[in-house]
Write a structure and sequence with these properties.
- The structure is a single chain.
- It is flat, with a radius of gyration of 15 Å.
- With 132 residues, it is mostly helical.
- It contains six helices and no strands.
- Helix 2 packs antiparallel against helix 3.
């Protein structure tokens, strides 16, 4: 895939598609706490944040898929951030594998499976570089 297509694909997953209005503020607070690894953040927050963006009745498969990619990139960003506490980065590392598994199951088509495999490789390289 040419670089301009990768950049376009990455930008596509920058924001979650649909979050119910009543949960939007909670989702944003959880996301901020996850990204910053705020003091007092608990691993359960990651699971709660993921569930909010994936489990509501009006979410199409395309939106769910897009939200999963968004989750992957946010968690990868945390894992890559040396300023975030190592323990928190490890919690995010555990959860990113769940995210990849969900992505793999969300769309069993060949192109999606290839993309998920490239994300696994990206994560492996990041882990090696960051020593997480």
């Amino acid at each position: 895939m040419p670089n301009h297509q990768l950049l376009k694909a990455h930008n596509f997953f920058q924001e979650p598609v649909k979050i119910p209005v009543k949960l939007k503020v909670l989702h944003q607070i959880l996301e901020h706490n996850i990204r910053s690894g705020s003091r007092g953040s608990r691993p359960e927050l990651i699971r709660e944040w993921r569930l909010i963006s994936l489990n509501h009745h009006d979410l199409s498969n395309k939106d769910k898929h897009r939200n999963l990619f968004y989750q992957y990139y946010l968690l990868l960003d945390v894992i890559s951030d040396e300023l975030v506490d190592d323990v928190w980065r490890y919690y995010c590392l555990e959860e990113i594998y769940e995210c990849l598994e969900d992505l793999s199951q969300a769309c069993p088509c060949h192109n999606n499976q290839q993309h998920v495999m490239s994300l696994y490789k990206e994560l492996h390289i990041t882990r090696e570089y960051m020593k997480v």
